[in-house]
Amino acid sequence: MEAVFIVNPAAQGRKALGRWNSFRKTATFPYQEFMTDSPGHATAIARGFAGRRKEGKFLLIAFGGDGTVHEIIAGAAGADHIVVGSVGAGSGNDFGRGFRSFASAAEIGRYLGGSKDSMAFDLGSADGDFFVNSSGIGFDAVISKATGRSFLKPILNRFGLGKLVYAIYIVRTLFTFRTFNLEVSAGGEQRQYQDVWFATVSNQPYFGGGMKISPASEPSDGLIELTVVSRLSRVKLLFVFGSVFFGAHTAFREVDSLQGRSFSLKADRKVPLHTDGEDAGDTDPERPVVFKVLPGAWRLAGQ
């Protein structure tokens, strides 16, 4: 198995590059190294290795944040000769909370020299756009879009305070966001929700830099979970967000949770959509967004 590092030098306010320069000195095994230079580059690299099935197996290791590993898995999906690993070097690292990550080059070396176990995990799809952690529409998508474009994020990342950006935009968006009505179709049934703040579809429990939005999510069970938050005052929404870090928000009657293989979500107006915290455009009020699970679509390196 050949090791390949895909490094995002811009992760965590460009701190990832310094971490990589130190990390690479501890690697005692042969490897290839690729530096990403733009959104989608990691996916293109992974897709290139996905087309090299006849050359043997590859361990693609994301060295960056959630966006980097998201892109690699999207590019490697369905390629059984590719195993994905990660070294968390971003500001959020929700992937590392839900999936095993490598802590050191020594761990990677032991994996390459051992039995090379791997486990198949599910992948989510939102109208064809893949997500590993979660996807959603509404309030959380607005925050994800704002934090991704914020000038504050790289500044705070330099001081190890990148997670504060999410909290700052929660408060800011709280006073500007306009709720919407939502139609959910699942398992042949329809549900109507009014005054919706957000609807999140999860493949694993965490989003937003450590919030346990979907405590029941298990990324290898062939199912995805939908969480809808509606009919809340702005003040109470803050309490709900505070409880999400502990997974206690499900006790609120305004929080509804569903489980299934697919969900169709149709909002009554345009609202932002995100996949793994990345901007995925806006919903179309004339057409529902279809979320599906792709069971066992990618493999994670065991340790």
TrEMBL record:
Claim: Transmembrane is one of the keywords in the record: no
An individual GO BP term: phospholipid biosynthetic process
A Pfam family it matches: YegS_C
Record-linked InterPro entries: ATP-NAD_kinase_N, Diacylglycerol/lipid_kinase, Diacylglycerol_kinase_cat_dom, Lipid_Phosphate_FormReg, NAD/diacylglycerol_kinase_sf, YegS/DAGK_C
Cross-referenced PROSITE patterns: DAGK
GO terms for MF: ATP binding; kinase activity
Family annotation (SUPFAM superfamilies): NAD kinase/diacylglycerol kinase-like
Keywords from the UniProt entry: ATP-binding, Kinase, Lipid biosynthesis, Lipid metabolism, Nucleotide-binding, Phospholipid biosynthesis, Phospholipid metabolism, Transferase
Domain DAGKc: 1-130
Top-level lineage group: Bacteria
Family per record: Belongs to the diacylglycerol/lipid kinase family.
NCBIfam families (alphabetical): YegS/Rv2252/BmrU family lipid kinase (TIGR00147)
Annotated protein name in UniProt: Lipid kinase, YegS/Rv2252/BmrU family
Organism annotation: Bhargavaea ginsengi
